[in-house]
Amino acid sequence: MRKVKEFIIEKLILICGLASIFFVGLIFLFLLKEGLSVFNIVTPLDFLFGKSWYPISDPAQLGILPLILGSLLVTLGAAVISIPIGIGCAIYIAEIAPARIKEVLKAGIELLAAIPSVVLGFIGMITLVPFVKNCFHLPTGLTALSGSIMLAFMAMPTIVSIAEDALYSVPKTYKEGALALGATHWQTIWRVMLPAASSGLLAAIMLGIGRVIGETMAVMMITGNAAVMPNTILEPIRTLTATIAAEMGEAVVGSEHYFALFAIGIVLFIISFAINVTADLFLHRKQ
Amino acid sequence: MKKHFKNVAFLVIAVLTFSLRLSFAENMVQVKGSDTMVNLVQSWAEEFMIKNPNDFVAVTGGGTGTGLSSLISGTCDIAMASRNIKEKEIALANKKGINPNEIKVGMDGLAVVVNPDNPVGKLTIDQIAGIFTGKIVNWSELGGKNEKIVILSREVNSGTHVYFKEHILRKNDTNSKEEFAPRALLLSSSQAIADEVAGNSMAIGYYGMGYISAKQKPIAIAINEKSEYVEPTIDNVVNGTYPVSRPLFLYTNGQPQGMVKKIIDFALSKEGQDIVLATDFVPVFK
After folding, report:
1. Closest residue of A to B201, CA-based?
2. Is B285 a domain residue?
3. Contact check, Cβ <8 Å, A140/B185
């Protein structure tokens, strides 16, 4: 009787474990099935490198290069802002902060992760956007930079918590050895702790970036959504995610526009898959 | 343990029956579509539900395209549309056994608005088209300050976007290939355009007349340089002198029946049309 029970529970857990992979597989198949049809209308090259996105015109122009560049630009900006701050914050929490401040900081960062992105977008719209506009004397504050700053806030919790874990899991003996050899605290952190935790830190960065590139609501609200080839970070841009979110409701099921949006989904899926795999590779190199 | 399970099962059944009763007990009609019309149809729905306490009307926005594609996929009963249904959409609907039926319920004047600080107060249709297609880039070309023009447009799911493109940018010419300038900012609601225009002296945007407030300045529009510049007011839309106005439609599946018919009849009644006027639109009957 006990054995049967054990057997059933084991199998149930196995099914739970496989379910997530199964669902990812199904989602990818569905994306492929719906998205690949767009290549009956445009060639993959024209789709990926076309410079005009006018999906509802007749004939539709389905070039997503401005959208890809928009997504990459916002992500790059967010990475430049969030990586130094995030890693610095992780070092402070893991190495320097006294226990009480450490608890407060950790709780604060978890709270930051819990703010819904639409709320961040809204706050960005009424505070950050006018600020960016006045600060740089721009025609409009709805720019890639505003999006980058807001997204940096969203990437920070991921980066900080994983980087802090990585620093924490560096064997204590490393640190003690370095200090015993007469290194200062900072020298120990810079020369010993950071290199020892490097793969974990890289994974933290990659996962943070993965979060940013998939973010939709906040960027849709504050980046202006102009499908233009970006020249500087102070211009409005349109991201892949915002395009899907803004246009999916309108797209008539089975139209070329609908297929094109699914094809954008495939592109996004491939990008975030690549980022996650890289992060995974870094994490495993550690062991 | 067993007892616990029994309790849970009981709870689940209770919740299920309750939600089933909710969906059957009342007559429910889903209305979806044009953001421009949401306020108007919501006012109709509220008045209608006061008169018919057993009926429930749910109104959601999302854009004309969203409404029509919901009607086609059968997830709403009435679609609000601020443009005519497209041939493509009719073909798709027919394929799914849906037969879209058009009912004109009002008119809307489209206002082109700028910030009150902007000295420019009147434009011709050609100038407006030039601005939105990106040929005119600086306000000084129009007698304003030496500032870049920031173009604000609605997202492509908006009937207002499509109407503006077809009737202003392309001037009703179906062969025209004019598009919004790529650098036009696509905002997701009329309110977002109103807010941005209110706070940005270089911005120009467009939306239904109902959204005009003291924080934006509506532009007087002339068909060409020789004709008169006309302000977007209800009177000017009714007497046909304001050049940028469009019909507002409700679409149903086939001839309206039952509760859908009751709602449409209410919308077209004297009382319904008074609500049209009260929400800053223009009634079909005067």
Report:
1. A139
2. no
3. yes
Exposed, middle or buried, A41 (CB in 10 Å: 0-12/13-18/19+)? middle
Per the structure, the count of domains in chain B is: 2
**B129 in a domain, yes or no?**
yes
3-class secondary-structure state, position B192: helix
pTM tops 0.90, yes or no:
no
List the 52-91 stretch of B: residues with Cβ below 8 A of A.
Answer: 62-63, 65-66, 68-69, 72-73, 88-89
CA distances from A144 to A74, A118, A213, A221, B81 (A): 6, 17, 13, 11, 33
Confidence class for position B34, pLDDT limits 50, 70, 90:
confident
Same domain, B212 and B100: no
Which of the pair, B80 or A252, is modelled with greater confidence? B80
Gap from B197 CA to chain A (nearest CA, Å): 10
Q: Which domains does chain A carry? A: 44-283 (1.10.3720.10)
Are B148 and B95 found together in one domain?
no
Q: How would you classify residue B63: left for phi > 0, otherwise alpha for psi between -120 and 50, otherwise beta?
A: left
d(CA A255, CA B60): 23
**Residue B150: per-residue pLDDT:** 92
Residue B283 lies in a domain: no
Choose the mutation target among A126, A252, A256, A258 for the interface with B, i.e. most B CBs under 10 Å. Answer: A252
Q: B65 to chain A: nearest residue by CA?
A: A250
Q: What is the residue-averaged pLDDT of chain A?
A: 90
How far is A238 from A68, CA to CA, in rounded Å? 9
Residue (of A36, A21, A69, A25) closest to A266 by Cα position: A36
Position B9 confidence tier, pLDDT thresholds 50, 70, 90:
low
Is B116 in the same domain as B241? yes
- As given in the structure block, the two tokens for residue B79 are 């679609």
B149: nearest CA in chain A?
A139
Q: Please state, in angstroms and as integers, the Cα–Cα distance from residue B145 to each residue in A148, B119, B122, B140, following that order.
A: 31, 8, 14, 5
Any idea what the CATH number is for the domain that residue B85 is in? 3.40.190.10
Cis status of the peptide bond prior to A59, with omega within 30 of 0: yes
Task: Round to whole Å and give the CA distance between A74 and B90.
Answer: 39
Using the beta-carbon criterion (under 8 Å), do B186 and A226 form an inter-chain contact? yes
Tell me, yes or no, whether B76 and B198 share the same domain: no
- B90: nearest CA in chain A? A252
Q: Please tell me if residue B94 touches chain A, with a CB cutoff of 8 Å.
A: no
DSSP 8-state assignment for residue A39: G
3-state secondary structure (DSSP) of residue B143: coil
